[in-house]
Design a protein that fits this description.
The chain is 40% helix and 25% strand. The chain is of the alpha+beta class. The protein has 2 domains: 115 residues, Aminopeptidase (3-Layer(aba) Sandwich), CATH 3.40.630.30; 145 residues, Gcn5-related N-acetyltransferase (GNAT) (Aminopeptidase), CATH 3.40.630.30. Strand 11, helix 11 and strand 12 form a beta-alpha-beta unit. The longest helix has 16 residues. The strands form 3 sheets. It has a 7-stranded mixed sheet. Strands 1-2-3-4 form a 4-stranded antiparallel sheet, with helices on one face. Helix 7 crosses helix 11 and helix 8 packs antiparallel against helix 9. It is built from 12 helices and 14 strands.
């Protein structure tokens, strides 16, 4: 297939194609997994095509005109970038390439052709997995105390996500949304849709999940998968906000149970939200995956 005007919507049956490209060209930015692209498809409406062994993805972001993610694969990514830039210009008048990593910027972008803007709000927080598991030292002492207090105060069970638990995960998500009034908040409503899409397609998407059950009910859950050979990415983390230490506990237990073979854990971006930024910084990331937007 060659890319002309043959961009098409992402479908579940496309997973094998995406996985093949992402295995050839392992990503470092959290957006680039099939699960992430599929679960958020109603918000971003991703379209894809292939040109000269490079996977091209364009999408709508926050109601703006079409933009593109950096090309993926073993093909000539500079040529693919040039193609998608021209494609966007012809359809929108301006080309915007989003979530561009430092690595892609340095190796595949002619900087004389683009205006380059840093994207701090969408840059990823990456932690040493061993730190999120052990919570060592003074910097993470408060987090360890929160986990220990939760363990002492509650009779609970940790369980890995299975097909039988999907409805229980959805039940917690529904309760969480009622507390946060998702129906009145466009961003929360779209996140709710994304969680629903991930969970009902769990058997096909094959990500990992973990849950804390209290009195037989799911009180917290987390969903993630391997992003590349050394890094896991956490897509979703939800907990009953009324239970002290529960967020710290699901973070710790999911890492301990699911990601002992990972060196790093990418916990995605803070979206420029002050409380979320504070929460992610409180775990003291090992490094950030810096992202940029290219305009032409």
């Amino acid at each position: 297939m060659s890319a002309t005007d043959d961009f098409k919507p992402i479908e579940l049956q496309d997973k094998a194609i995406f996985d093949d490209f992402l295995t050839q060209d392992p990503p470092e930015t959290s957006e680039l997994t099939f699960t992430n692209l599929f679960m958020w498809r109603y918000r971003y409406r991703p379209l894809w095509s292939i040109r000269d062994n490079a996977l091209l993805i364009i999408f709508h972001e926050y109601g703006q005109a079409l933009s593109a993610l950096p090309p993926i694969g073993k093909g000539d990514k500079s040529d693919a970038l040039d193609f998608v830039t021209r494609y966007l210009k012809s359809h929108c008048g301006e080309a915007r390439i989003s979530r561009v990593s430092n690595n892609f910027l340095e190796h595949h972008v002619d900087k004389t052709l683009y205006r380059i803007v840093g994207d701090r709000d969408n840059s990823d927080y990456v932690y040493l997995a061993e730190n999120l598991i052990a919570l060592p030292g003074n910097k993470l002492h408060r987090k360890k105390n929160l986990v220990n207090q939760f363990i002492k105060k509650h009779r609970f069970e940790y369980r890995n996500l299975t097909h039988d638990l999907v409805q229980s995960f959805l039940g917690l998500q529904e309760n969480w949304c009622e507390l946060r009034n998702c129906a009145a908040d466009k961003d929360l409503a779209e996140e709710n849709q994304a969680v629903y899409e991930a969970l009902i397609n769990y058997d096909s998407l094959r990500f990992q999940g973990g849950a804390i059950l209290i009195e037989g009910k799911v009180a917290a859950f987390s969903l993630g998968e391997m992003l590349n050979q050394s890094t896991a990415v956490i897509h979703i983390e939800k907990a009953d906000p009324s239970i002290t230490g529960l967020y710290a506990a699901i973070n710790n237990l999911f890492c301990r149970e699911a990601w002992t073979d990972a060196k790093y854990i990418n916990r995605e971006q803070d979206l420029g939200l002050e409380n979320l930024r504070k929460a992610k910084e409180s775990y003291h990331p090992d490094h950030m995956v810096q992202k940029h937007t290219l305009f032409a």
